[in-house]
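We close this part of the discussion by returning to an individual protein. Part of our work consisted of pairing the sequence of a single chain with a tokenised description of its backbone. The amino acid sequence and the backbone structure tokens for this protein are reproduced below.
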Amino acid sequence: MTEMEFGRRRRPLLRIRGAGVAWLLPLLLLVGIVLLDFTTGEEFRIVTWIVLVPGIAAAVCGVWTTAAYGVLSVVTYVLVDSAWPNQYQAGFGDFLLVALGGALATLAAVVRVRQERQVGHMRDIAETTRRTVLRPLPPRWAGLDHAGVYLAADVDARVGGDFYDIQPGPHGARVLVGDVQGKGLGAVEVAAALLGTFREAGYHERDLGTVAERLETRMRRHRAHMAALGRDEGDRFATAVLIAFPDGTADAIDVTNFGHEPPLAVGPRGVRELPGGDGLPLGLGDLAGGPPPVHRARLAADETLLLVTDGVTEARDEPGEFYELAREVSRAVRADPRHTEPRRLVRRVRDGVLRHSGGRLDDDTTIFAVRRLPDDGEEPGAGDAVRADGVTGPRVPATDDLGTGRARGE
């Protein structure tokens, strides 16, 4: 990213009608010091305070603006001090102080802008990584209406170990939502590996149990690869829930749960927890002799499937009480049945979690809602040609634009 690009992208600290006005602060300070110097009289000269002007500029303005204020401060000091009789002039010593202050302020602005550029570059990398791991999902994808939001617990982070995806295929749509144990790039690598396997196996494999086996095998292979590189991740695991929307079945889904938060079915008649949370996390399948079983669960056409990571259920308020997801969603649906729509439902849960926790999340948080679309004949069929990137037909904007946010109230 060039310096010009950075300058265009960095949002000014103060804006009026969209225009940056941060440069006004040091200018107003300069004018105020000059006026005070003349009004306080010769007994109390404050012209030397002009040294504060480039210091303020260094905190809120760019390098060249700060340098300009450094020069302007020196010139103003000379003009104002020369207007007084010789016996009341501040003198050459204070002139050097103002000049040195301007030079140091300019240097400070260089350091600050360079650091901001580095931070911006790292955020760009993190955002690119996020969009690679959590690829944007087209609207009305695979016959499903969906919405998702990811909230990073770290205010400077944009990506973590939470993941979700929808994979259409000849055997119906498959959905995966999960949470990798731990944080950092190691968790991101595991999420990327599992999503890559899911996108291939979810498309090609007819049996959901086979997809689950492929995910378990991929987790073990990834840990072996990391161990061969000298990175011991023997205790790394991931909770996940794998769901299939079988073709020709309008009122049921297949669920395999790897120790994850149980999905909720949210409909006009209330909220209910789906069964099937009897499996161990991915990476611990050897302890149970294989992946968890596949359960068939009822899901009515007017019900939305709500899947979250433990950042939701473990969110605490000030007294330490956990966020009651099912209770809060039930209350919202009773108040307005339209909250069963995926976007409204995700937004309601997101706002509720942030409000409950005061915007302070201890863990990355993912909220994902999905339901079947009415069979109107507009959705791509299982036999349609699918491009290598998984998009059928022309690319369209993603619907999961509720935001990859930070853990703060919005």
In short: Confidence is low (pLDDT under 50) at residues 1-10, 377-401, 403-410. The two ends are 29 Å apart (CA to CA). Residues 92-133 form the longest helix (42 residues).
